[in-house]
Specification:
One of its GO terms (molecular function) is methyltransferase activity. It comes from Nocardia stercoris. This is SAM-dependent methyltransferase. The chain is an alpha/beta fold. The longest helix has 22 residues.
Length: about 270
């Protein structure tokens, strides 16, 4: 995400949300995104697997929070382009009256968001999109208050997007500012890419040269620190591919450089 909200859709510069959409089999992308996406696959063939597995993780985490933790409010920051089984679909499948706020500042995302809201107008819950940059969390909180009840627990989600933060300190500031605003009993759902895979780290470095907003993978220790002060749910911080999957069903899961977890604010 860039520092200021975009005012036009750039088709000459690759965008991570559109490339992600391409890797997941979506159609909301441009030639430049497909070119960069294909070049990225040559560097790290596992990146498409990461895109697919991250969506599976989102669905498992949201479903768990709605079913087992009684969460009916979700604040999905840096949501990206709508694709298969979005946050509101997973949440409202369990809690039809669930309230979801998506946050993004990309014009293509917002264009599709308006269409999605019209399509889902009959849903009993509430789904809203907020145009904002996650580098300004105070604005996000103010906008989310118009939809969500900040006296009740909220699931705050940062799904593979904070590698675009201007710095690691800024990453921590963003997360902690939002979490400070939500009440006890709220949850953080978070993951990002790590430096464990040399191919993935190389891919990120090459992507930065393409003109897209750089994505910085970090160490597992750095990502785990995002959960400081929170109570991590089992199995704790670890690979997203196995979160929420019973141990006896984990054989054969792919290995990707994507780590995170789900944690409760005490």
């Amino acid at each position: 995400m860039s520092a200021e909200p975009n005012t036009e859709i750039r088709t000459d510069i690759p965008h991570s949300a559109r490339i992600w959409n391409y890797w997941m089999g979506g159609r909301d992308n441009y030639e430049i995104d497909r070119v960069v996406g294909d070049a990225s696959l040559e560097i790290d063939p596992d990146i498409a697997t990461m895109a697919i597995e991250s969506r599976k993780y989102l669905i498992r985490a949201v479903t768990y929070l709605a079913e087992s933790a009684g969460i009916a409010q979700f604040l999905d920051i840096g949501t990206g382009l709508p694709t298969q089984r979005n946050t509101h679909e997973a949440a409202q499948a369990v809690v039809p009256a669930a309230r979801i706020v998506y946050v993004d500042n990309d014009p293509l995302v917002l264009t599709h968001a308006r269409a999605l809201l019209k399509t889902d107008a009959a849903a009993s819950g509430v789904t809203k999109y907020v145009e904002a940059d996650y580098h300004e969390p105070e604005k996000i909180i103010a906008a989310a208050r118009e939809v969500l009840d900040f006296e009740q627990p909220i699931a705050v989600m940062f799904m593979g997007v904070l590698g675009h933060a201007r710095s690691y300190d800024d990453l921590l500031r963003i997360v902690r500012t939002v979490l400070a605003a939500v009440p006890a009993g709220s949850y953080l759902v978070y993951w990002d890419g790590t430096v464990d895979s040399e191919a993935y780290a190389t891919l990120c470095a090459e992507y930065a040269k393409s003109g897209g907003v750089p994505y910085v993978p970090r160490t597992q220790k750095e990502l785990a620190a995002v959960f400081d002060g929170l109570d991590l749910l089992e199995p704790g911080f670890g690979p997203i591919v196995s979160w929420g999957i019973p141990a006896d069903q984990q054989e054969g899961l792919p290995e990707i450089a994507a780590y995170g977890g789900v944690a409760r604010k005490p």
